[in-house]
Amino acid sequence: MTYPSFWAQLAPPPPPSSSPSPASSGPAPVEEEEDTAPDTSDVVPPRAHTYRSADELQPRALASYAARFIACLVAMELVLHALPVVALKDSGRGWWRGMTAAEVAMVGFWNLIVVWLKLLLPWRLFRLWALLDGVVPPENMVRCMANNYSTLGFWRSWHRSFNMWGIRYIYIPLGGASRPVVSMLGVFTFVALWHDLRLRLLVWGWGVVLFVLPEMAARRVVPYNKFGSRPWYRHLAALGGVFNVLLMMTANLVGFVVGVDGATALWSVMLGDWAGAPPSPSLSLSRERNPRARSVV
Predict the structure, then answer these.
(1) Is residue 104 one of the residues assigned to a domain?
(2) Where in the cell is it found (predicted)?
(3) Whole-model pTM?
């Protein structure tokens, strides 16, 4: 199914032509009996609203997709049961006290994994229902953040249907690839306001755009088609991937977990010494009174 361009949709329809067509210069056609059937020339059949091949509608493919959904659901239950990272970050400011830098980083990382899973599950369930009904909508969560070292690739795979909408109606009208920074700034400003009217979400959106710039610069300085065969290139790409994951963690922790002040405190812990942040006074006092108390903040 093809769509007209954005500006073509805004243009008014052309006026009807008053000049006779070449076919009307001949003898007048014989009047036929009026057809009372509705005009269905502009009706798009339901199967045209598909983005991938109909192979996904085969019974074997549907069973495989349902099994993958159940596996993701079990993985979510196991993560929430074994890793109380959501309870830690929801316990209030200062939950990182008494943790090492590596533990604080892992809390942030696994919180983002939980966010990815909790968005994947309802969208994949609704997509499975649509597939059972014969409709093939786009897959929203294509790749996990732990399986994507590219910031640009990460955002192309996160909420993909919304990403396609943003590219069509915001990114391309603002200039697209000819003005990528301005276009991305417009897209993520809209996405931040779409989530909620909060300053920290605007900081998140602008931070995402800022964190994309190093990868864009690296692609221009050391492009893959020129240096990809060099033995050092894979190590440089791995280092850049670690840097991108840390930047994505920071942006999402600011927007959806701890805010700007909390992210500043977290980075002060992660960039500090190996011992991490000192425990809070209240926790130290409770340990003195009860040495067997658990050291969970």
Answers:
(1) yes
(2) Membrane
(3) 0.66
